[in-house]
Design brief:
Layout: H1 16-28, H2 34-51, E1 53-58, H3 62-72, E2 78-84, H4 88-98, E3 105-106, E4 122-125, H5 132-141, E5 145-148, H6 156-168, E6 173-175, H7 183-193, E7 200-208, H8 221-224, H9 228-244, E8 250-256, E9 269-275, E10 281-287, E11 294-300, E12 303-307, E13 318-320, E14 325-326, H10 333-347, H11 355-374, E15 378-379
Bound molecules: nicotinamide-adenine-dinucleotide.
């Protein structure tokens, strides 16, 4: 079923900008003929719209609905231009809510036709992990830049194929590592780089939560690629990598499964250690069995700094051994991430959270699973 095009009767999509203009025009020139005013303003409004990078969201689940679409409204350089979904009723609801014309709405079957749509510059892949590779590669082949949610893919070899497809299409590829745009995390990266508390020696990092619905895709091996580690442990792994600025060489890991039925296909709880070239050691944890772990603590030779909670969408709190509070402005991490990628696209430069960055995490994750499987120390693939 083709969704009804509510906006197609208008020459200009009913974007928030346009509605805002109409409201302003009504205030400034009360009584003026709105149609005449609008005609005067149309080219300028269109020029403003043009400068914004058009995003199409691929997958309209929880993250797209509750975080990404609202964040897009707060961006400076992006706009919600299109949507891709397998559910016609969702498409209709999103069209109504965000004034998205039918020409910018796709199903998973018609997705490749996005190639013919100049209003869409970026496809943002917000599907289950096991679908990231296919939709990234199809997006790149359709000539679109790709922002892909974390984890980048189920395997490192899928990451390599995604990087290759984007390279061949001369398109940018980035991974949704929102924390790298978050001011508390950035402050901690600076504390580590500037050695404010001396040399970084050890990091203790973890992220977990109690997962509900036993039938969700996050518990299915092919769609999730793994369990807590792939879903949220990856934040702790990322933190260790961007605090040290190094790649771990070797891993030892252990897994525990207290509910082998629920977690038949994916991991429930994992602890793992990482050894970095400078000698930094990291001990990390992740779980789907209980809530409460959401932090990192960086031990240096002259003190420490930490974030707890560290990886939430907001409310991040930091402290240091000097008794200071790391207090930074709250931002919308998704808006910052999308604006940064828009700048990368406009300036033709790679993102700091590039596909290569996503591949590095998958190599470590594979070493963690290897260590669990073999019961031995595993080296991270170069
Ligand atoms: P979700 O289950 O809420 O949404 C998934 C969407 O994919 C749904 O719209 C569903 O209809 C669609 N879909 C298409 N084919 C499917 C299939 N075969 N099985 C199941 N769903 C299918 O998931 P979500 O929480 O929105 O997560 C989507 C992605 O975003 C995941 O990769 C996840 O890791 C990532 N994510 C990132 C963050 C973050 O903070 N960066 C937070 C949550 C999720």
């Amino acid at each position: 079923m083709k969704p009804k095009d509510k906006a197609s009767s208008s020459a200009l999509p009913e974007t928030p900008n346009r509605r805002q203009f109409i409201k302003q025009a009504g205030t400034v020139a009360a009584g003026a003929a709105l149609a005449g005013e609008a005609k005067l303003w149309l080219p300028r409004v269109q020029a403003q719209e043009k400068k914004k990078i058009g995003y199409a969201l691929v997958g309209l689940g929880g993250l797209s609905t509750n975080q990404i679409a609202p964040a897009l409204q707060k961006t400076k350089h992006c706009r919600l231009a299109g949507i891709v979904s397998g559910t016609p009723s969702k498409i209709k609801a999103w069209q109504d809510k965000y004034q998205i014309p039918s020409r910018n709405c796709y199903s998973y079957e018609t997705y490749d036709q996005i190639a013919n749509n100049p209003e869409i510059d970026v496809v943002y892949i917000v599907l289950p992990n096991g679908m990231h590779a296919e939709y990234t590669i199809r997006g790149a082949r359709a000539g679109k830049h790709v922002l892909c949610e974390k984890p980048m893919a189920n395997t490192a070899s899928d990451c390599v194929a995604m990087i290759q497809a984007c390279r061949e299409a001369d398109r940018q590829l980035a991974v949704g590592y929102r924390c790298q745009f978050e001011p508390h995390h950035q402050a901690c990266m600076n504390l580590a780089r500037e050695k404010t508390f001396g040399e970084l020696k050890m990091i203790d990092a973890g992220f977990g939560f109690k997962i509900g619905d036993p039938n969700q895709w996050r518990l299915k091996g092919d769609l999730a690629g793994g369990g807590a580690l792939m879903d949220v442990g990856i934040y702790a792994l990322q933190a260790c990598r961007y605090l040290t600025g190094e790649e771990p060489m070797a891993i030892t890991a252990q897994e525990s499964k207290t509910d082998p039925v629920k977690f038949a296909e994916v991991d429930e709880s994992i602890v793992w250690n990482m050894q970095f070239p400078s000698g930094v050691l990291a001990y990390c944890s992740t779980t789907y069995a209980f809530g409460g772990i959401n932090r990192f603590h960086a031990h240096c030779d002259k003190g420490w700094f930490s974030l707890d909670p560290a990886y939430s969408y907001g409310g991040i709190k930091g402290r240091t051994s000097k008794g200071e509070v790391i207090e930074k402005v709250e931002i919308d991490q998704f808006a910052a991430e999308m604006d940064d990628f828009a700048a990368c696209v406009l300036e033709g430069r790679p993102s700091k959270v590039s596909g290569e960055e996503g591949l590095k995490d998958l190599k470590v994750i594979e070493a963690i699973y290897t260590s669990i499987r073999t019961g031995k120390r595993a080296l991270v693939a170069g």
